[in-house]
Amino acid sequence: MKNKEHTRQVRDTVVKKFKAGFGYKKISQALNIPRSTVQAIILKWKEYQTTANLPRPGRPSKLSAHTRRRLIRDAAKRPMITLDELQRSTAEVEDSVHRTTISRILHKSGLYGRVARRKPFLKDIHEKCRLKFATSHLGDTPNIQIQDHSGRKPDGVCKRPETGMEICLPTRQ
């Protein structure tokens, strides 16, 4: 388990006292921190000439934070965009990256399947035709055939008379 890091001010104070000629033990007693911690801070300062936290190891990201945000914004704005299109747009701005890299960036931000929204079943022209039909048949008397009167059993489900008239379609005579 990693212990809490000391603040930058504490580490700078340790180095100042060391430059002033104090020993490890005197510095640790004055600042009330362990001697081994004082020793580690001074060894790090001797090696790197800084008391700041150094970057952690690991390969740096190929894409900058700006490009990463741009990818996420494009994918959220246009749900039908493909990884190849995103790859081409990234290659124009920055270095070319693999499709899986782009996919991984989008997955980390919560964008998984980029699919288009469902097309509505009724277009405007269909709604107008339905409205025209309904208004032209507004005064018609309900002439509804609830079941087949031919005497044979129907193949499908037969609606009972008490289910209501709203589920039945009007028949023409």
UniProtKB/TrEMBL annotation:
Give this protein's Gene Ontology molecular function annotations.
DNA binding
Q: Its Gene Ontology biological processes?
A: DNA integration; DNA transposition
Concerning Pfam families, the annotation shows: HTH_SB, HTH_Tnp_Tc3_2
Sleeping Beauty transposase HTH domain span: 1-51
The residue ranges of the Transposase Tc1-like domain are: 68-138
Q: Per its record, how is this protein called by name? A: Transposase Tc1-like domain-containing protein
